[in-house]
Amino acid sequence: MLLTTVLIADFEKAGRATCQRLLQLEKKIKVVGEARCGLEAMTAAAKLKPRVLLLDPSGVLGEDFSLVSTILEKSPKTRIILLSERASDADILDALSQGALGYLAKPALAIYLTKAVRVVAAGEAWVPRRMVGRLIDQLAPGQA
Fold first, then answer.
1. Average pLDDT of the segment spanning 126-135
2. Bridge-partner residues for 52, per DSSP?
3. Nearest to 78 by CA among 117, 107, 106
4. Quick count: other Cβ atoms within 10 Å of Cβ 12?
5. With contact defined as beta carbons under 8 Å apart, do 8 and 34 qualify?
6. Would you list the domain boundaries of the chain?
7. Which site among 4, 55, 99, 117 is 20 to 30 Å from 128 CA-CA?
């Protein structure tokens, strides 16, 4: 049984608790730590080397989706799923271009979190269906 380790980085205690509660039901997923801000997320990712990092970069002054590349410098094998109440498509595309492998809107956590973690842990992407066309356009401009 291959265990997927997860680090939860959310500035809201309720957000961390929700992720923890949903993931503890999964036998093959283990939460190895929590972080309250980007600096804690970077430090914890470098130390714990989780397979998946659930990252909500909003809510802390000066932190945004650019955290992705910084965290991946410290822990290059970690796969990042962004969590947000409402990120713009441009923010999501920017984070994906920096190396994130997924995005999940917080209102959809109860439905999709465990599946998104499994998919991203396996090296696949998890993005809203509405974005697939834009991603393809970015990868192959002028091919439409």
1. 74
2. 6, 79
3. 117
4. 14
5. yes
6. 4-139
7. 4
Nearest to 110 by CA among 11, 45, 17: 17
pLDDT in tens, 67-123: 888 899 989 999 999 998 877 777 788 888 889 999 998 999 999 999 999 999 999
For Cα atoms 68, 73, 75, give the angle at the middle one, nearest 5 degrees. Answer: 90
- List C-alpha distances in Å: 134 to 12, 93, 94, 104, 138: 30, 9, 12, 17, 6
Tell me the pLDDT tens digit for each residue of 31-83. Answer: 999 999 888 999 999 999 999 999 987 754 344 556 888 899 989 999 999 99
Q: Supply the pLDDT for residue 61.
A: 39
Can you tell me the distance from the alpha carbon of 108 to that of 62, in angstroms, rounded to the nearest whole number? Answer: 26
Q: What is the CATH number of domain 4-139?
A: 3.40.50.2300
Count of beta carbons in the 10 Å neighbourhood of residue 54: 30
Sheet holding 29-35, edge to edge: 29-35, 4-9, 52-55, 79-84, 102-105
Report residue 17 CA to chain centroid gap.
Answer: 16
